[in-house]
Design goal:
Oligomer: single chain
Number of domains: 1
Strand order of the largest sheet: 5-4-6-1-7-10-9
Largest sheet: 7 strands, mixed
Helix content: under 10%
Structural class: mainly beta
Shape: globular
Distance between the termini: 15 Å
Strand content: 25-35%
CATH superfamily: Dihydrofolate Reductase, subunit A
């Protein structure tokens, strides 16, 4: 499974159980990166996607091994053991946050494979980082 999520400049993920931000270009990029792979999300994120573009799940075990799980208002730590790769989007801004990353992809045993910047619809620059588990790299 590939785990995809967004963070701010200090590793913030969510504030008051809500996403920090949203961007249509990011959603389009995620779907393009998925290609033929199925995309999954938790119920909270379903409204970001067109109907039929994603499968809504409640647990990482419901995500197929070749799928991408987009995560917003949940701690990624519970999903990291299931992820072979990480797709990390950086907002390149600072937002209020009460849910933050505990560690970094490198500390979790991943290696940066690729990083690119693109313009969002509501963000001047979004950075996309693709990480793979070190034993796979």
């Amino acid at each position: 499974m590939i785990l995809a999520f967004c963070i701010d400049d200090q590793g913030g993920l969510a504030f008051n159980h809500r996403r920090q931000s949203r961007d249509r270009a990011l959603v389009a990029d995620l779907l393009a990166a998925a290609g033929a792979r199925p995309v999954f999300c938790l119920p909270y994120s379903a409204g970001l996607f067109d109907p039929g573009a994603v499968t809504v799940v409640d647990a990482p075990g419901a995500v197929s091994a070749d799928g991408i799980l987009f995560l917003e208002n949940a701690d990624p730590a519970a999903y990291i053991p299931h992820a072979e790769e990480l797709l990390l989007y950086r907002w390149n801004r600072l937002y209020p946050a009460d849910l933050t990353l505990n560690g970094t992809p490198v500390q979790w045993g991943y290696r940066l494979q690729d990083a690119t910047d693109f313009a969002g619809t509501s963000h001047e620059k979004i950075t996309k980082e693709w990480y793979v588990k070190k034993e796979r790299a």
